[in-house]
Amino acid sequence: MNLIVFDLEWNIGYQPKTFLYHGTELTLRGEIIQIGAARINDRGDVLDTFEVNLKPHIFRKLQHHIAKVTGLSQGDLDAGLPMKEGLQKFLDWAGDDAELAEWGLDDVPVLKQNLFLVGLDENWPNRWYDLQRIFLQAYPRKEGEGLTLESVVDRLGIPKEEPFHNALDDALYTARVCRKLPLAEGLATYPTEEELLTEALLGAENTGRDVQLFMNRMEHDDYRSVPELYQARCPECGAPLQNDEVWLKRGNTGYFTRAACPYCGHWYLRFKLSRRDGLHWSFARCIDPATPEYDARWDKQKAALLERMKRKQERNIKRVMDPKLRLCGAPPS
């Protein structure tokens, strides 16, 4: 295994920036200004290190909050390597077979977006790990305990000899955390992308039936606009289900609707969405049995949504019909 623990610092703009990825408009999460990395073995021993500062070409002005957190200056950015050159240098050092490990799930999506924007292969890496997951298996989180890298370093009694939010220093702190973990076991049993998505869909209840996965799609709304995803059959008799026209949100990245079988009554069709790589959407779908609690939730949330839509439509109609509102340029709701 060629395991690379890495950390990124990135700049953001004062206004959002979008870009086209194979015809789909995406929001740029950030432009990398610093990469720090350590090649480690499965015990967490550091074998080699890498660091580079990059010169951004989209968010060229250092955002004041980023400057405060990282200690970097505008001069540091201006003196960095050109973006493509610096990223290629990192790829060459890491190697084609590198497997990346990071503290959390923030850096790989930013890396892949930046690779694409400079014309490098955004499919690299094809395997990466969230070390927080391995940490939590060994050290379950207690109430009030943080999961920031610094709080975990404190919790494990690791000496704090360098400042945080420098990419190489953070990568080395992460490597020291790895030395306190059953790293080899955690990596060997780390779930696949498909397993992670299924786990997120089913949760602890694990009552969903007919689990289906739809990986690496481009559009967020495919779950309700592409028949391949939203057409399902009754788990009992196999008859096609008829979905309600309303989709309701469940959590931050979940959606569900009521789906009727002409013979067996109704079910609930539920999706969990993931954009782990920052570029593609993946969907997990299941069919939940109806329960009195589920029905009550559906009725309440649907009624609330329809009422909000009605009020919004009435406000828009009033604005169009009222000359005073048109003249003062009142924004639509």
Give a verbal description of the structure.
The chain has 333 residues and is of the alpha+beta class. It is 37% helix and 26% strand. The chain has 13 helices and 14 strands. The protein has a six-stranded mixed sheet. Strand 7, helix 4 and strand 8 (128-130) form a beta-alpha-beta unit. The termini are far apart.
Spatially, the strands of the biggest sheet line up as 6-5-4-1-7-8
Secondary structure: number of strands: 14
Largest sheet: 6 strands, mixed
Uncertain parts: none
Radius of gyration: 24 Å
* Strand fraction: 25-35%
Span between termini:
54 Å
The helix-strand sequence is EEEEEHHEHEHEHHHHHEHHEEEEEHH
Helix content: 25-40%
> Any idea what the shape is?
globular
Counted by DSSP, the helix tally is 13
- Overall average residue pLDDT: 94
The secondary-structure class comes to: alpha+beta
